Amino acid sequence: MSTQKKTVWFEVEQGESIETCLERMAAQGYTAAGRKEEPLFEEIEGKYVPIRQVIKFKGVLLD
Predict the structure, then answer these.
(1) Which of 1, 35, 42, 52 is the most exposed place for a label (fewest CB within 10 A)?
(2) What's this model's pTM, rounded to 2 decimal places?
(3) How do the domains of the chain map onto residue ranges?
């Protein structure tokens, strides 16, 4: 029996393409089953400013 989790969230790293992230998932035995995006904020001079969009893929373990 595999010790890998059935579902894992993979984050697209800064400077990494979506395609590269999907290839990394596949190399670990996962396929994309969902996607979510979240804004990443940084506090600048007392105001929260969005600095980038964080993209995550829900990976489901292939049998």
Answers:
(1) 1
(2) 0.80
(3) 7-61
